[in-house]
Specification:
The structure is a homodimer. Chain A has about 120 residues and is mainly beta. Chain A has 1 helix and 9 strands. The longest helix of chain A is centred in the N-terminal third of the chain and has 5 residues. Chain A starts with a strand and ends with a strand. In chain A, about 35% of the residues are buried.
Chain lengths: ~120, ~120
């Protein structure tokens, strides 16, 4: 039951697209991630995902639209929905999703992270 | 899959201690709440709770310590742990917890909210 200060956690994250576990509750993980550039198109079969922008902005692309998100904005991507985050500049994002959610969902490539850091 | 802008949601919340559902995912609710004053001591039998401060600051009191939280800080209160949020000034807080979590946990009093607003 200690305070988790997001700014100090993000200051320790130096890689992009590398979700880092900050907390676990009710079988869910809270993760911090820095995005920059284009991620891979993917979906999650059984997991909904929440993205909350802490600093900066990015675009969540769907097959039929794109949503621009800035600090203080969040979005829920329901299971089964293809999406791709794209960040023109570095952005700090908090993720809330079930423990065990794979970052690239149904896709496996060089961006897949099977093991996550914890801070 | 629409953007949820926290500032515009909090601007529509005028009562203190009245958690308002902003989103649901994986059986969990994301709630926005404004705190001011002292809440009631309580615990949740089966639910862990995450508190993330969006604006302002408050103190999470436990029976053996207190934790001061400011904007950008979060804390997880595990199930079974007695706690009481106290805010000297109004604070905006985001909550992540299982759908159906009762705000006053094991206690029932005039602060209990059986029905929550949605925004």
């Amino acid at each position: 039951m200690n305070k988790i200060t997001l700014a100090s956690k993000f200051a320790q994250i130096h890689k992009h697209w590398s979700p880092t576990i900050l907390a676990e509750l009710n079988g869910q993980h809270v993760k911090a991630s820095k995005f920059k550039g284009e991620f891979v198109w993917h979906h999650h079969e059984n997991e909904d995902e929440l993205f909350l922008v802490i600093k900066g902005s990015f675009r969540m692309e769907f097959r039929d639209k794109a949503v621009e998100l800035s600090a203080g904005d969040m979005i829920v991507v329901p299971r089964g929905v293809e999406h791709r985050p794209v960040a023109d500049e570095e952005v700090e994002v908090l993720l809330f999703e079930p423990a065990g959610t794979l970052n690239t969902g149904n896709v496996r490539n060089e961006m897949t992270k099977d093991t996550l850091d914890r801070l």
